[in-house]
Amino acid sequence: VPSGLFIPSMAIGAIAGRIVGIAVEQLAYYHHDWFLFREWCEVGADCITPGLYAMVGAAACLGGVTRMTVSLVVIVFELTGGLEYIVPLMAAVMTSKWVGDAFGREGIYEAHIRLNGYPFLDAKEEFTHTTLAREVMRPRRNDTPLAVLTQDDMTLAELQNIISETGYNGFPVIVSKESQRLVGFALRRDITIAI
Question: How does pLDDT run across 3-14, given as a tens digit for each residue?
Fold first, then answer.
């Protein structure tokens, strides 16, 4: 059954968490005199809740896959309504994010965007401007040269001239006329609103 990434990640984490919870429950039942269980668990008492381990495991697995942190803790809190479990949820989600980041900085959604070749500017990366404007936009043979905006030294009169003399809907922004390094793109609508 196709169910995306969200539900299977939570299910796998919940299964793994419940297995750990049952194992700890059995340890507490048979070895109640260990120093871990001596102060909490009385003989025959139910002091370990495997469901809590399942909930924390689901949040940890989903946090490792998607690299969500605060929003994921809030989602799981809203699902369960258990305010007393916020601290274990936070610890599990942050630990899973750190472990995931040790293997790679991107989550599953960023990886799919990159694999499909969609344009995506990731805030975690630094970009160096090495592209020239003529490599991105080229005028036709009989057209005038590119109408470009420079990054720092354009006057308001020059901007108004470019707007009135051309019919383009957008203009590449370059560092200077000499270097022609592309640093952005400005829409005609945004320029007219700013003027």
Answer: 788 888 889 999
